[in-house]
Task: structure prediction
Amino acid sequence: MRLRGLLKRKIIRALAKDSRGTTAVELALILPVLMVVLLGIIELSMAMFINTVVEGSLKDASRLGLTGQIQDGTSNAQAIVDMINEASLGLLNLTTDDVTTLVYENFASVGKGEPLTYDANGNGEWDEADGDTYTEINGNGVWDKDLGVAGLGAQGDIVLYTVKYNWNFLSGTIIPILNGVIPMSASIVVRNEPF
Result:
């Protein structure tokens, strides 16, 4: 019995002093965390790259409307989409439905709706059931969340160009909370030049 106890202690001491294989165990513990961080950095970098490309190409594309240039054989909206798709190096495939242009009278009215005079629940939205009231500005008889009018406008008009698109994660299955998709958008406001 005593011999067995001595052998156990000797084996345990020998194993405790043996450091072979510790690097493999440490790597097995660290590698999953390291891979998630690395994939996250790559995904974030790609999303930032696409957002920067869309914003820059939207700025360039808005020059078409800003200067009143008419495109031969295609609409200005399609020309804007084509410029953005080309600049994204094939990572996006936008359509004209992804781009909106709204015309405003002045810069102060961009993105603003008809003002509420009474907002019962304080949500900033008109709700007839709550007894909310608003100031009618454009005379159409309904509350407008945004006073912009669709189109590219005329000389001197203020135009808001907006692109809304979904960025699909390259590793979409790893991040199930977002279903592999991040909704993104880019906007620019310009005043049309005299054409």
Notes: The mean pLDDT is 81. The longest helix spans residues 22-66. The chain has one domain: 2-111+148-191.
